[in-house]
Amino acid sequence: MTLSMLTPLRDTMHTISSGLLAPTIAILLLLLAVSVIELGGLLVETLTERRKMKVNVPELVEFFQGKDAGAIMCGVENSGLFRRHNAALGELIKHGSLPAASLQALARRLLAGEELHYARITNRTDLVARLGPMLGLMATLIPLGPGMIALGQGDTKTLAESLLTAFDATVTGLAAAGVAYAISRLRKRWYEGYLSNLEALMESLLEVFARGRRTEEQ
Fold first, then answer.
1. Is the pTM of this model over 0.90?
2. Which residues contact 129 (CB under 8 A, 6 or more apart)?
3. Which pLDDT tens digit goes with each residue over 159-170?
4. Number of compact structural domains in the chain
């Protein structure tokens, strides 16, 4: 009775797992393509943005001291910062007359927006790094079932095809995950530095504006 109940359940699981093989392989190839595209994007980012970024944060902070909003804005535009960072600092400078609490809230919002922007970029490769090994394992195990059956029946051709599919899936999943993981690690290190620089510049601007308000009140 127990075996008769298990047979349809086992057949159902086999049907489901066999049906998942093609979608799993397709997604694996998609993840590998995403990794290659992201690698190309990383090279472009290295040769363009990072090559052009030559900002000296301590010098820029020192430049801010004692300057008015117009002079500070000119200094930011000519500093060699990324355009996104120029825009964020420009927004803060434009609203420099706000009360201190409101200006700090604006600075936090602008910084959070930059953090979210960089998080969206790294989330893509983080997802590939997580899904690659899992889907690679799925596409490895699924063909092993038919392969074991073929082994029992002496069908070496089917066994060889099943093993080849399993090994190819493992390599594809690990390759996609490895490339994506390396890209994520490198980008996160870069972006942490960018955000640290931006935060230091924003804090310096807040201090300059606060000092200017105190001078006006006196």
1. no
2. 177, 180, 181, 184
3. 888 889 899 999
4. 1
